[in-house]
Write a structure and sequence with these properties.
175 residues; mainly alpha; globular
């Protein structure tokens, strides 16, 4: 009799996280949340009420981006998928969950600042730093999943993090 291990295979979890959909959604969600929080805080509003509003805006922006991206995928692949109509659109939108999940750290940081759990002033810098570290992590994960050595994966992850910072800053300047 064969028994299943209590903890799933570590390589299976890494492979699942390194899927293009999860990677794309994770990176895109971090960029959306970084750009949104930077754009919302560029005028210096740091009150608790403003942080609550900012948290909602980051979450709604991520949800709207997931909806738009899922819908665009459904339209672009309509013939190939064979899932027409509302159910197909819903499947495509639900498949964008990594984008929304990636925006949750920023949302929770802003929400916590709004609730007074920590200082509201400067929380956008903390969120931006955490998102940059997470971008480095996604780059490292993708590189290791592609079979790169640890040294090469770290260099690629750092490059990805720097590129993410540049994209978020450009997005902020354009807003």
């Amino acid at each position: 009799m064969r028994t299943e291990p209590a903890v799933p295979d570590r390589h299976a979890v890494w492979s699942w996280l390194a899927q293009p959909t999860a990677l794309f959604g994770g990176v895109y969600g971090l960029l959306v949340s970084s750009s949104t929080v930077a754009a919302l805080t560029q005028f210096g509003e740091t009150t608790r009420a403003a942080r609550m509003d900012h948290a909602l805006w980051v979450l709604f922006t991520a949800l709207a981006s997931a909806l738009a991206h899922g819908y665009a995928h459904q339209i672009a692949h309509r013939d190939a998928q064979g899932h027409p109509g509302i159910r197909g659109v819903m499947r495509a939108v639900v498949a964008e969950w990594p984008l929304v999940v990636a925006a949750l750290p920023t949302t929770l940081l802003l929400w916590g600042a709004g609730l007074g759990w920590w200082r509201s002033a400067g929380i956008e810098h903390v969120a931006f730093t955490i998102n940059t570290v997470l971008l480095l992590g996604w780059g490292l994960l993708a590189s290791r999943a592609a079979g790169r050595t640890w040294g090469r994966a770290v260099r690629i992850g750092c490059s990805d993090a720097l590129l993410g910072v540049a994209v978020a800053l450009v997005g902020t300047v354009l807003k």
